[in-house]
Amino acid sequence: MPFLxxxxxxxxxxxxxRRPKQLAVIxxxxxxGCMVCVDFCPVDCIxxxxxxxxxxxxxxxxxxxxxxxxxxCTLCAKYCPWDTIEMFSFDDAYKIAPDWTLxxxxxxxxxxxxxxxxxxVRPRRRDLERKxxx
Length: 134
Fold this sequence. Notes:
The protein is 33% helix and 13% strand. The protein is of the alpha+beta class.
């Protein structure tokens, strides 16, 4: 399960069954930390990553997308003034995100396990009935 906390078990199960077709990934190499994407995100899955200097965390700040919460709405990518957010297929997003991430806070905040692969989809009853009729 993507979440260790038992209160998220139902949401995690649904996430595996109904995962979005695409997810947003931020290229932190071009991110300025302007946080425009945060204003447009309907599920609040974009986290602020403070700068590396603990005395002045607002310098060189970035943002990071919490992939298990992303619903793939494309609003952040559409309104990013620096064009550093791109939409990728679900599987590709999890492969590309580690390469594009310079600093992260999401893994430290939530302590998540890796996302499980989706189980094979069972055929619908009406599809089976159609095949039986043929």
